[in-house]
Structures are given as structure tokens and as C-alpha cells.
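Quick one:
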Amino acid sequence: MRNTFLIARREYLAFVRTVGFWLSLVTLPLLITGIILVPLLLRQTSPVQTLSVAVLDLTGEGLEGDLRSIIRAKAPPPKAEPQTDGMRKIAASIARPDIVRLVDLPTGLTPAMPRAEAEARIPALLDKTSVGASNILVAYTEAGVLHFDIWSIKSQKNSLAGSIGEELQDLNYYRRARAHGVDAKLAEDLRKAAVVNSLTHREVPSKGAGGGLGNFMGDQGPGVVGFLIGFGTWMTIFSSSMILLGGVIEEKSSKVLEVLLASTSTESLLIGKVLGVAGVLLTVGMIWSGLSLILGSYGLSLAPPGVAAGIKAAFSGLFSPLHLVLLAVYFVCGYLMYGVSFAAIGAFCETQKDAQAIMGPVMMVLMIPMLCMQAALSAPNSPIIQYLSYVPIFTPFLMPLRLLNPLPWWEIVLTLGGMLLVGGFMIMVGRKAFRQGALTGGKLTWGTLFRIATEKPSA
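Output:
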């Protein structure tokens, strides 16, 4: 036992003492932070567009006042108290809208002129910076249909349409309602939309905090979170197994493995290596989880109280203690299965080239759950996903995806039992294969594996 922990300590320190480990530890958080913050910083430092809008009403129906009111309503509100917190300033700049202001109609355009003449003059007027208008909103009717043409300089194309498009549609709706003698109050009541909730027999309509986010987490949250957990499990198990594989190959080629085997048993060496890499993963996980918790808490403190309460309410019922225990069991079993197996493969390989020839078929098999996880986002309980999750070598990756949805107990018991049974067999064969590969070498073939699996333990 002492030798096992010494080997585990050696493996652990061999990683955490290197500069590359700490660089790789901070690379992913920095990358994620950059992906989030760089667009926000660019948004904050980029100049705000000022959309100077002139209104030309050619309908003859007196819509100019309504159109000017729409433009005025888009004017920026009085400046609020400046933010002193840097992160709050960045957060406030996310939804910073363009500034829309109303300007006088340029000289040469009048409501009484023909539309063709106006369209002929507008391009030349927009080219002149002295005009003061960067957008000209032209309203006219054709065959009884109201049209809005928004003429803009090239850098502001589509900006005004995105800002006032809904208001223009509302104006057309109320105009047609008046034309048909519909009372304005009745027309407004007819515009009110019904509230449609999609529920299951296990849910009740949510009227508290959370709102749309709560509904999204209730409907799509389990699938999205399950996919992230399954993907993280796949990446973690695969990367740690590759670390074990590469470490064994390196030590075998440099004769370090022979020195270690001279002072300890193959079982202690194998278990120590697996525990050492597990300690590295635990260190990385604790640091990343701590950073995520700190940044998440700080982010919630920046959010409006209603949004923060909604996020907390949406995530509060997503996990239970039983979920966390089952996720840990699936992960540990998967790590032991693949970690021991990859270490055994490494014991038969003299170089990385030898390992690549063996890992090709293994990678093809491991890609199956990855492909299924993407398809399972929309249907986590589809028959294919369900049946593949019963296959023990796929169980650690697919069951975390399905656990966040209600499952019968027999499925959980079946997958755990199958995984423990096959995992125990893989660990037993991997231990024997590691011993034979480390002591005698040779080439790893299916015949070798069969002989190792069926040989009786020596007395």
C-alpha cells in the first residue's frame, strides 16, 4: 500500500511541478474569458452610431406626426448616474442601442412631390454631410398597401429598420383598423397575445421568479446540462487515459519502468499511476470549479435582482444529491475502466507510433457516444440513445445525459450493474495485460488479450 501511494505521489508531482501544467490550467479559463469579454470590450470601445432620421410622408394621410413620434420615442433617455465599477460598465454596454434622433427634412424634399422625383433626389442628398440626415424614412401607399422605404448611408443600412420595424408594423395595423371603423381601444385589445405554456404532467405553470429562463431550463435545461456533463466526462476520461498511455510509453522507452518494477509490484505501479493522474484531475477540477463559482457569484451580483433570482430558481431544482452521487459513480467507473485499459495498452508499446496503430480502432468506438450526445440534445430518451446507454463501455458518457430526465429505477440499476461487471472485467484484464507488457513486452493482439483474460491466476 505504501508503494502504491508513493507511486501516486510521484505521478502527481511529475505533473504539477511543471510549468506546462500551470500554463494549461489557466489557458482554458483565459480562453473562455476572452471569448466572452473581447466582444464586450469591442462593443464598449466602438463608437455608438447616431441615426439622424428625416421623415418624408407621401401618403397624403397625415402620417408624418405618427412617424415623428415613433422616432422621438427612440431618442436616448436622460443620462443615468455613471457606473464606477468597471465590470458593471462592461455589463451595461452589452445592450447599448444606437442613438436615434429626429432631424428636419433636407431642402429639396417636400410631402407634395411625386415619389419618383423624391427617389431621384435622395441618394445625392445622403452623400452630402451638410444635409444632417443619415436616414430618410419615406412613407407612401401603392395599390392600397402602406410602404416604408428607409434610405440610409452605407454604414447604417438596416440599423433603423431593426430599431423601428415593429413600431412601423403597429402603425400600419392601427391605420387599417381606423380605415375599417374599428375602435382604437378594441384594436389594441385584439393585438394582445395569448399566453401559451408547454407543460408535462409533472409540472405546474411557473408564475414566480425565473420567467422565460425558468421555462427554458425546465424544458431544455436538462438536455443542455446533460450534454455538457456527458461531453465533459468524455473529454476528461479520454484525456486522462491518454496521459496514462503516454506516461507508460515514455517510461518504458527510457527504461524507467524497469527500475520501478524492480522496487514494487506491477499492481502497485498500475494503481499508483491511476491514482496519481486522478489527483491531477481532481486538482484541475477543484481550481476550475472554484473559479467558476467565484465568477458566477460575481456575475449574479451584477445582474438585476429579478434576473439573478430567475437564474437561481432555474438551477435550484436541476440537481439533487442522488444525481450528484450517480454522476460521480459513473465517472469513477468510466475512469477506472479506460484508465487501466489505456495504461495496459501503453505497456505493450515501445513508441507513440505503436500506440497510434492500436488507438485508431479504439477512437472509432469512443466516437460513437460523442456522435450520439449531439443527437440526444433534442431527444435524450430516444431508443438508440437508451439502448446504447445499456452498453457498459458507453454507459459513463450517455447516462449523465439521461439522468437529468426522469428514469425508472431498473434502468439505473441495470446500467450500474452492467458497468460494474464489465468494468471489473476490464480492470482485471488490464491489470494482467499491464503486468505482462511491462515485464515481457511483446505485441498486443486480440489473441494475446484472449489468452490473458482466460489464463488462471498463478498459485
